[in-house]
Amino acid sequence: MTNIKVKEHKTVSTAHNEDYRILIRSVSEQFEHTEPLPAEETDKIELMTYGSFLKKANLVKKGESFYITYKETQTIGFEGCTTTIKIAEDGSRVALLRFGKVNTQLVIQRDYRNICYYETEVGPITLGVTGDGIACDLSEPAGGTAKFSYLLDADDPTALINRTTLEIQVEKVK
Q1: 3-class SS at 13?
Q2: Per-residue confidence at 16, pLDDT binned at 50, 70, 90?
Q3: Contact call for residues 95 and 60 (beta carbons, < 8 A)
Q4: Which residue of 50, 58, 73, 148 has the smallest Cβ count within 10 Å?
Q5: CA-CA distance, 137 to 50, in Å (whole number)?
């Protein structure tokens, strides 16, 4: 049996006039050519914050999406940014949008590889993003849970790959 070293980050932040508690659990694993790298490359992050949650009709496509919006903290390096996670009600698509000091747009669709723009502190890069799975059990106004996973590659599907699984719980607090 292998001992797994895990980097863990936990943070709690509060924002004024936000009426939903948002809990995000993230697990990222590193792979090289589909072979897992050593276990110490696993990164776990748990973030609890407050933000907004709503459901809106999509203007371009039929159907509706849930929007989860919160302010980032310094813990994961994006202080000064606002993140919106847009999840299609039917679970077909997720968009991770970050605006502020750095801008990011990741579009996740099951079994489809999108090329996305990602800004870092040292400059922008493009990433290939392939969705593994999306499950949406959200409802307004109660909240609920959404879970999705995706593969990230540095614009080359045969290079270093990062598989990230996010579980998001949204709960009305006011």
Answers
A1: coil
A2: very low
A3: no
A4: 58
A5: 19
Q: What is the pTM of this model?
A: 0.78
Cβ of 147: how many Cβ atoms within 10 Å?
Answer: 16
Evaluate whether 143 touches 134 at the Cβ level (below 8 Å).
no
pLDDT at site 93: 92
**Which one-letter DSSP state was computed for residue 62?**
S
CB within 8 Å of 123: residues ≥ 6 apart: none
Instruction: Reply yes or no: is the peptide bond before residue 141 cis, omega within 30 of 0.
Output: yes
Residue type, 126: T
Distance CA 80, CA 102 (A): 9
Residue 164 CA to chain centroid, in angstroms? 8
What is the DSSP-derived secondary structure letter of residue 79?
T
Q: How far apart are CA 158 and CA 60, in angstroms?
A: 33
3-state secondary structure of 76: helix
At 35-82, the pLDDT tens digits run: 655 556 678 888 888 988 888 866 555 578 999 998 887 766 778 889
Please compute the mean of the pLDDT values over residues 5-29 and round it to a whole number: 62
Residue type, 82: T
Whole-number Cα distances in Å, 105 to 56, 92, 97: 19, 17, 5
